């Protein structure tokens, strides 16, 4: 085919030197680069200004940041290992047999299956990404992502222990969280677009690599990739924890509307793992049970840490659309269940 007159002439050497889109993506900083760069900066600051970390506000920030990351890291590792195991040892045909072919039916089945993963949202994100890679319908994978951190036995038992005088709190949390997962899965089935999902490519193993090599490569990639975004979420959560005065929260506990909105937003910014958030909610005695249920339902499905992890796993375009809708559905679901229960 002849070149059109408007097409600029390029030599073979120039064409060979042109950067491909993949090359340009590889030249951008990765989450691993961010993690290493942040660690280097902290060490340099610690060496140059050792008294800086003695400031009470900075000490509180550092304590919260470390607590958020350490609390989430074990579950993130569990999720990464499960994700790598799915990639290496589970054939795609398994999911095709286990889930109904129709996405509308696969969504509630996937939502209920979230009860078998005793982890938090940090674990569910890499597992959901691996499910999509293995050919599972995105709607079903997203339903699993939202339900796993909210309806698993560890979370429900923790909720029952935190609210010994309100046994219906665990039941209400289970029902509202499952509704959120199923509704969001159905919404994705109806309105979601495949181009919104941008799963990062994994480094391919060497030719003839066995399952153990595939497992190791996938786990290493996902841990480094998700770890950087976990740090971003931890930084945001720590900053907002220090910046929001507790006295301001207590002063608005008497307003039914404001208490719901404030605890919903607080669940997003505190980024507490779902295994521990029930005890935080139980301590907020100045707020109503309904507003505390909103806190428990919103936190595991949308918080700053989870948004960062979703951005790293599925892409920024996905997170910017998925998180706000999930927030609205979670608040409405919690209010509806609270109206029925109480």
Describe the fold and architecture.
Its main location: membrane. Keywords: Cell membrane, Membrane, Transmembrane, Transmembrane helix. The chain has 342 residues and is an all-alpha fold. It has helices at residues 12-17, 21-27, 31-48, 56-89, 92-98, 103-113, 121-133, 138-151, 153-162, 168-191, 211-243, 246-251, 256-270, 277-283, 289-298, 304-314, 316-341. The protein has one domain (32-196, 208-341). The chain is built from 17 helices and no strands. It is globular, with a radius of gyration of 22 Å. The chain starts with 11 loop residues before the first helix and ends with a helix.
Topology:
Layout lengths: L11 H6 L3 H7 L3 H18 L7 H34 L2 H7 L4 H11 L7 H13 L4 H14 L1 H10 L5 H24 L19 H33 L2 H6 L4 H15 L6 H7 L5 H10 L5 H11 L1 H26 L1
Largest sheet: none
Number of domains: 1
Structural class, by secondary structure, is mainly alpha
Q: Element order, helices and strands?
A: HHHHHHHHHHHHHHHHH
| Overall number of strands | 0
User: What's the helix count?
Assistant: 17
Q: From the structure provided, what is the oligomeric state, counting identical versus distinct chains?
A: single chain
What fraction of the residues are assigned to beta strands by DSSP? under 5%
Mean pLDDT: 79
| Helix content bin | over 70%
Give the overall shape: globular
């Amino acid at each position: 085919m002849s070149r059109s007159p408007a097409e600029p002439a390029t030599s073979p050497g120039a064409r060979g030197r042109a950067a491909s889109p993949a090359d340009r993506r590889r030249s951008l900083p990765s989450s691993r680069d961010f993690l290493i760069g942040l660690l280097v900066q902290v060490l340099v600051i610690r060496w140059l200004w050792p008294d800086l970390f003695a400031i009470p506000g900075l000490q509180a920030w550092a304590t919260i940041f470390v607590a958020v990351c350490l609390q989430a890291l074990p579950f993130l590792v569990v999720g990464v290992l499960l994700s790598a195991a799915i990639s290496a040892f589970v054939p795609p045909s398994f999911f095709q047999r286990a889930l109904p072919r129709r996405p509308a039916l696969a969504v509630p089945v996937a939502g209920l299956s979230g009860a078998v993963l005793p982890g938090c949202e940090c674990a569910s994100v890499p597992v959901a990404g691996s499910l999509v890679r293995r050919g599972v319908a995105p709607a079903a994978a997203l339903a699993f992502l939202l339900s796993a951190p909210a309806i698993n036995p560890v979370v429900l038992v923790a909720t029952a222990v935190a609210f010994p005088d309100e046994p219906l709190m665990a039941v209400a949390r289970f029902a509202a969280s499952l509704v959120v997962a199923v509704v969001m899965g159905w919404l994705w089935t109806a309105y979601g677009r495949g181009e919104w999902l941008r799963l990062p490519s994994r480094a391919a193993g060497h030719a003839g690599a066995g399952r153990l090599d595939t497992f190791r490569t996938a786990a290493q990639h996902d841990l480094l990739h998700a770890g950087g975004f976990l740090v971003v979420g931890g930084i945001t959560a720590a900053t907002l924890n220090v910046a929001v005065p507790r006295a301001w929260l207590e002063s608005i506990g008497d307003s039914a509307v404001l208490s719901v909105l404030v605890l919903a937003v607080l669940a997003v910014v505190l980024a507490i793992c779902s295994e521990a958030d029930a005890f935080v909610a139980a301590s907020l005695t100045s707020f109503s049970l309904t507003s505390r249920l909103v806190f428990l339902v919103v936190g595991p499905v949308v918080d700053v840490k989870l948004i960062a992890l979703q951005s790293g796993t599925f892409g920024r375009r996905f997170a910017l659309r998925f998180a706000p809708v999930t927030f609205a559905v979670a608040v409405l679901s919690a209010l509806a269940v609270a109206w029925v229960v109480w």
